[in-house]
Design brief:
Number of strands: 7
Largest sheet: 5 strands, mixed
Structural class: alpha+beta
Bound molecules: guanosine-5'-triphosphate, zinc ion
Helix content: 25-40%
CATH class of the largest domain: Alpha Beta
Oligomer: single chain
Strand order of the largest sheet: 5-2-3-6-7
Distance between the termini: 50 Å
CATH superfamily of the largest domain: GTP cyclohydrolase I, C-terminal domain/NADPH-dependent 7-cyano-7-deazaguanine reductase, N-terminal domain
Number of domains: 2
Strand content: 15-25%
Shape: elongated
Order of helices and strands: HHHEEEEHEHEHEHH
Length: 235
């Protein structure tokens, strides 16, 4: 893979361009291993991005804001930031479709809902974090197939580790679930606080942005949607 090219678009992640790239569960386990204990087995995620280029850019930023990048405390900072960005944007290198390859027959045709999945992402406007919870529900299709609960959280992770806006993050999760699980309906609700509104600009901390994406029968049928919503955001 030519790591000097701009990252792939949101819809076509730059995954598996070469056979040495991790793909599917391997890439996800890989990302998970990094997130959980900082240890990697195999090829580091960092290798997929141009760390040197990020380092040079960060050094420039430090100079531009009036810092001395050669002072002791900042010497390692460009390299650290480069590694951090590799991790924070690792979702660009993972094909989200690979998350939902495992499905099970359960003959369950009613709502499955996972609430309060931790979400941390970076807004694409300021590259500042936004953070909160995702709630994901779906009604399995006529074949009653379900997926592993952790896969829903992994899906959030893959899409969140990209430069994002909350609205797109929400609909990407919903659309992929529709595509891969062929369910009767999907509902995704995200509630997040954006640091770009808290630390800078208007400086309103505590404001929560709520976005939803509803598909299939949950979109068409107001009663089922209200029932799902009541479970997601109890009064
Ligand atoms: N819709 C949406 N807006 C976002 C998200 N994250 C950040 N923003 C907004 O993106 C907008 C960018 O607006 P601009 O006017 O181009 O940038 P700005 O001058 O930094 O804006 P201020 O934050 O108002 O100072 C801001 O209003 C942010 O609050 C998001 O996930 N969704
Ligand atoms: Zn922002």
């Amino acid at each position: 893979m030519n790591t000097r090219e701009p990252a792939a678009s949101q819809d076509t992640p730059a995954l598996a361009a070469s056979s040495t790239e991790p793909d599917g569960d391997e890439a996800l386990d890989y990302l998970a291993a990094r997130l959980i204990n900082g240890k990697l087995t195999g090829r580091p995620v960092e290798n997929a991005v141009d760390l040197g280029r990020i380092e040079r850019a960060v050094r420039e930023i430090l100079i531009a804001v009036g810092e001395d990048p050669d002072r002791d405390g900042l010497l390692q900072t460009p390299a650290r930031v480069a590694r951090a960005y590799a991790e924070l944007f690792a979702g660009l290198r993972v094909d989200p479709k690979q998350v939902l390859t495992t499905t099970f027959e359960a003959n369950h045709e009613e709502l499955v809902l996972v609430r309060d999945i931790d979400v941390m992402s970076l807004c694409e406007h300021h590259l500042l974090p936004f953070r909160g919870s995702a709630h994901i529900g779906y009604i399995p299709g006529p074949d009653g197939r379900i997926t592993g609960l952790s896969k829903l959280a992994r899906l959030v992770e893959v899409f969140a580790r990209r430069p994002q806006v909350q609205e797109r993050l929400t609909s990407q999760i919903a659309d992929l679930l529709m595509e891969r699980l062929n369910p009767r309906g999907v509902i995704v609700v995200l509630e997040c606080e954006h640091m770009c509104m808290a630390m800078r600009g208007i400086q309103k901390s505590g404001a929560k942005t709520i976005t939803s994406a509803v598909r299939g029968t949950l979109q068409r049928d107001a009663k089922s949607r209200a029932e799902a919503m009541a479970l997601i955001i109890p009064r």
